[in-house]
Amino acid sequence: MPTIRYVDLGHVHVPHLHMWSQSPTLRSLSVHTINPTIVPFILISSPNLVHLRVEFLFNTIPIFDSAPSLRNHPLKHFILSDPYHKLSFNHIYTLLAFIPNVDRIELNFLCKIPLIRFLHSLLKRLQYLNRFDCNIDDASNDKITDIQTIQQVHSCFYRIQCSTNDFHFRTFTTESKKCFFF
User: What is the mean pLDDT of residues 61-89?
Assistant: First the structure.
């Protein structure tokens, strides 16, 4: 019997999280969802998952209801996209606690705290991080911290660039080759 190594679940609105079965051969997974709680359930059901891409939809409900306890999953590459700005720093920080072994991360979200504070918090959660890609809109009040200071926090942040629009709104990005399908 063949084994499934990659799956794109498409849109999973209200998953039956407690009914998922084990998928020990699954290595890569992509999902669009409204429920952040899906992440730990995916990790528990896929103990050998290496790549995970999660995109949150416009009607995301940012509540961690009945999230299972999970620590030290071997996931290596995590892509989080929140184009509708539904998740807060605390939501993302909670998700990072489930994946301490990630060495590559791509983030697309609205950051309401100073980016430098977020990056320090990220490094506390992801001690093996060596590749960081982003498209982060900065909604914080920090307009003082310059890009050189941010780039010096850790070697994986050296590729971050900052653009400012006419309203002094900052966006932090990296040039990356998007690999949404592994």
Answer: 86
**Can you say how many angstroms the Cα of residue 106 is from the centroid of all Cα atoms in its chain?**
6
| Pair 161, 172: CB distance under 8 Å | yes
Q: How far is CA 137 from CA 39, 48, 81, 112, 148, in A?
A: 23, 32, 12, 9, 18
For the chain, the average pLDDT equals 89
Cα separation, 86 vs 80, in Å, equals 12
Domain boundaries, the chain: 6-173
Q: Pull the structure tokens for residue 85.
A: 């700005």
Residue 110 amino acid letter: L
Please give the helix or strand (H or E) that residue 33 lies within, else none.
Answer: strand 28-33
CATH 3.80.10 fits 6-173, yes or no: yes
